[in-house]
Amino acid sequence: MDRASKIFIDIQSHLLEDDKPSLYIEELSRSELFGSYPLVMLKELKKTDQSPKHHPEGNVWNHTMLVVDQAAKVKVQSSDPGAFMWAALLHDIGKPATTKIRKGRITSYDHDIAGAELTVKFLKEFTDHEIFIEKVAELVRWHMQILFVINNLPFADVKKMKSRTDIKEVALLGFCDRMGRLGANQAEETGNIEKFLLKVSDM
């Protein structure tokens, strides 16, 4: 087994088997491996700030670790836990490249689109399983649609989303994304997911 395959299998086993995968991933992030491509793409999350209003937990790395642990709690609800857990880990991989300060606010517009492309590049370093890579990338691409749909924003593209991925998987990932922040209200976020699924089922 080559080095890349071993790294991929090690990470996946912890994503799928651990109650809190963040503990292993945090440990891995302190190793020299995180300085090499493509894991350095995850290391960049530690340097990427977020809006303190929406993300009181701090940088993108902190948020991602919370999301991964939340995803571990609900992965049994996923039709493809492997793809789902990798999507949880990589969902904001596009933020380092898109985060800017605009009018005094930290923003990361289109990080979902950039993230999908980076997800493909990241995973191709570890596996040639194209269907798997596509599943993960599409979940990353569409994870912001919940916010767009329930707020009637022009960035919503339900028709295309439904043609490319499973909306129930998007909803599950979106729930973990929303819960992966300090002070998250589970009842409120559950309600938002239900509202999203109801709206897109009629579109």
TrEMBL record:
Keyword entries, A-Z: Nucleotide-binding, Nucleotidyltransferase, Transferase
UniProt xrefs under Gene3D superfamilies: cca-adding enzyme, domain 2
InterPro entries: HD/PDEase_dom, HD_domain, HDIG_dom, tRNA_CCA-adding_enzyme
Enzyme kind, highest EC tier: transferase
EC code: 2.7.7.72
Pfam families: HD
Domain of life: Bacteria
Domain HD: 60-144
Signal found in the keyword field: no
GO molecular function: CCA tRNA nucleotidyltransferase activity; nucleotide binding
Official protein name in the record: Multifunctional CCA protein
Organism per entry: Ruminiclostridium hungatei
Gene: cca_1
